[in-house]
Amino acid sequence: MSDFGKSGEDLSASRDELVDRETRSPNWNERKLPISMVVIHYTEMEDKGFAIERLCDPEAGVSAHYVIGKGGEVVQLVPEEKRAWHAGVSYWRGHRDVNSASIGIELDHPGHKYGYQGFPDAQFEALVPLVARMVKDYDIPRANVVGHSDVAPARKIDPGELFPWDRLAEYGLCLPRPKKLEHGDPFDNDASFYLALERFGYDVSDGHKVVEAFQRRWRPEKIDGEIDGQVRAILFQLLLDRDQGRAR
Fold first, then answer.
1. Residue 218 — very low, low, confident or very high, per pLDDT cuts 50/70/90?
2. Contact at 8 Å (CB) between 185 and 234?
3. Which of 157, 176, 195 is the last residue of a domain?
4. Chosen domain end from 145, 176, 207
5. Are 153 and 203 in contact (CB under 8 A)?
6. Percent of the chain with pLDDT over 90
7. I need a labelling partner for 213 at 20 to 30 A (CA). Which of 78, 176, 199, 226 fits?
8. Measured distance CA(87)–CA(61) in Å, rounded
9. Considering its fold, how many domains does the chain have in total?
């Protein structure tokens, strides 16, 4: 039985050892940039069977390269060399066409709309080798393995505060949260914080939302959109680590 219920039962088996099934979404076009990012999403679907249907629906106009079920089933919808339509209007580290530069992975999950919850171990354990292969094959920096909320902070909050970034970082597949904030809070005012946030890679056009996105990723225990000493210190340490070559 497919993780995705009735809509997934007839999916073709894959020859890829990391992929269980394949079906082809029509929602893709050609890339204009080399692959340099991975973007992680949740599906925010009430019924697990709707995820693949929607991502393959020409009328919906959305897709992803992969969708991973709660039980760990990996389904490929768009070949990696093609541009899937998962990020929408987005920005990260100079890229405004995030879809062209990234591989999109959807995690089957109810999202905040239908009862936000943690991500199952089986799903995470299927995600890890998939991301590891991408990072190796395309030489993707850890700083470019991000959530949808990182690249579209004004619109999106997925995969949300319960996604286990710390566990993914233990495998060296994304940046870890800085543990030591030795240099404290160096920013004199909010404007300097926003400039630093933009330098790190975020779109800062919606100040409150981008601070929420930063907190969701780097301080998920408190998300209020307010700039405080702790978030300033975290950002400064991230920038310092990057400038010193420790945060590729």
1. very high
2. no
3. 176
4. 176
5. yes
6. 86
7. 78
8. 12
9. 2
Do both 95 and 154 map to the same domain?
Answer: yes
Helix (H, G, I), strand (E, B) or coil at 29: strand
CATH number, residue 226? 1.10.101.10
Let me know if 106 is a catalytic residue. Answer: yes
CATH number at residue 53: 3.40.80.10
For residue 31, CA distances in Å to 85, 100, 159 come to 11, 5, 24
> Do residues 107 and 68 make contact, with C-beta atoms less than 8 angstroms apart?
yes
Fill in the amino acid letter for 174. C
Query: Same domain, yes or no, for 198 and 229?
Result: yes
pLDDT for residue 127: 98
The one catalytic residue in 106, 125, 170, 212 is: 106
Domain range for 211: 177-248
pLDDT tens-digit map of 62-112: 999 999 999 999 999 999 999 999 999 999 999 999 999 999 999 999 999
What is d(CA 165, CA 26) in angstroms, rounded to the nearest whole number? 31
Based on the fold, state whether residues 94 and 44 are members of the same structural domain. yes
